[in-house]
Every structure is written in structure tokens, then in C-alpha cells.
């Protein structure tokens, strides 16, 4: 399914102070807006996903699923900087008529949701019933609720945070160092830095998963090296790391990876506002914060902070061995939590943190 493209042809000033003459956003809609415009579900994707959640969140999006196109108007936007249709580093800069490459305008998570506001207006959406997203998607969800507190009725930030941690920055910086040390990175070509990005992805996978996940799925040697001497055997864990790097390189580019990881690092809802706490306290939507127990990249303490400061928010912790990737894989539990929270909220008011 090909995304639609929204063009904004007016000047747009980023947090960095740089003004661009416009931008375009690739977006996917599933279902139709009802007469009362009360069935909008806005889904936010994570770092390397695209605007079609039915592809990467098939357990939650689709016919008869939690988010059903026959009932809901589902919207998902490819974040600026990504390589799936929105304004990106491999696009042409209209001011120079040359490819952006390393000179791509830097979009923060706040810049991203400000661009979505123009798409929302274009789509005729006045109110969003449910907003949901994990990881970097959750960061954008929080930013939008702070910028526009009356827009969302329910929000479900999953495995995310109010400010990216030094731990998270360290992981992302290490990945960018892999790209920077690729001898092709400084070249202005489409595949520049690609070998470095493969290594970066290997580092990322360690932060996305957990000790137990590797123990259960990557134990021992690959079947291809069975019968070989010990010095020629290859561990499944090593093969898996290499495979994941190669897999990403077939669908992504180092420029998008570099800029998006940097945008994640700069995420801080308190920037330019009184504080993180004050920013979160401005959120009005009914909020269920969802955490993954084994998440080492966005640990539960970060979701506890969200639930403590967002007015009347509740916290649910999913017991999972998948680590951070649990927000993509524990869809049955997520569906149950979302349904229960909405049903309970309609029966009685939310009264406090839990």
C-alpha cells in the first residue's frame, strides 16, 4: 500500500532557527472519518518503521483487530527525516537544487508534531480519539499533547520517556560513531555510511532486546556450521547480529538513521518550558502509560515519571522478556490494556495515579 503525500508549501521554521520553504509528509489512512469525526486513531511509528502500521503492528491494526478500519479512521505519518516518503536527506533541497545529504534540516520531535498539525488541518480532524505510539513514536505523542492539550481524548505512550536519557544518548552516539567511521560517510552518495549503519544496527539490537530474549532464541551455534571444528563454528547470536544489519541496509539509509537517532537524543519535553514536570502536567488526555518490564533502553522508571506527573494518569507494566521490542510484540496484552482502560474511563472518572 503506497502512502499519500501531503505538501506544505509555506515557510516553516524549525527549533534550530532554520527556516525551510516547505515540506512534504508521507502518510497512510485506513478506514474513514465518521460523521461526528469521533473515530480518529493516530498511530506514531518508531525509528525505522513506515507510515503503514498494518505492516509493522499487524497484531493491533487491521480488520477485526483493536484498531479496525471498518470502525476507525486510522492515521499514521512517516516522520520527517525518514526514508519512507516524507522530507528526507536524500531529497532535493529546493533552495540549491541539490540533494541534502549531510545538510538536511534537523527536525526535533517537537518540529515533527508541529508539521503534523498542518496535515491534521488538511484532513479535517478536530479531535483525536486515541493517540498511541512506542519509543520515538511515544516521544512525539507526548510532545503533541503538550503543544495541543485539547486535541486528544485518550493517549497510550508505550516504552517511552519525557527526556531522552544519557544511557539512551550513549547508545545512539555509539551507533552514529559507527557510521562516522565508515570511510564512505563523508561522500555525497546514496549508500554512504551503509556499512557503518549495519554495525550501528547491531548495537541497537542489544538495547532493543534483553538477556533472556537472547538466551531463549539465540542459544548455541548456527545449523550451517554443524559438524565443523570448534574454530569454524559460528554462534547464532553473532549470525543474528550480522543478519539484522544486512536486513536494515536493504530498506534504510545511513543518513536517515543518523538524523533520526539524533532527533531522539534531543527529545526533552521541558526544553523552553518551565520544566519537564510542568510540561507533563499540562496534558489533559486520559492517559495510560505502558511499560515493558525488561526494557533496558527505556526502563520502567521513565514511565513511572510520566505517570506521576501527567494528571490522573495510570501506569501498566507488561511482564515480558522481549525487552524494548516488547512494545511491538506484546500486542495481545496491549490490546487488553487499551480496551480495559477505555471501558473503565467511560464507566467512571480516572481518579489518580496507579
From TrEMBL:
**Pathway membership, UniProt:** Amino-acid biosynthesis; L-methionine biosynthesis via de novo pathway; O-acetyl-L-homoserine from L-homoserine: step 1/1
Gene Ontology biological process = homoserine metabolic process; methionine biosynthetic process
Answer whether the UniProt record assigns the keyword rRNA-binding to this protein: no
Major enzyme class: transferase
Name the catalysed reactions: L-homoserine + acetyl-CoA = O-acetyl-L-homoserine + CoA
Q: Where is the AB hydrolase-1 domain?
A: 40-329
Record function comment: Transfers an acetyl group from acetyl-CoA to L-homoserine, forming acetyl-L-homoserine.
Name listed for the protein in its UniProt record: Homoserine O-acetyltransferase
Annotated source species: Panacibacter microcysteis
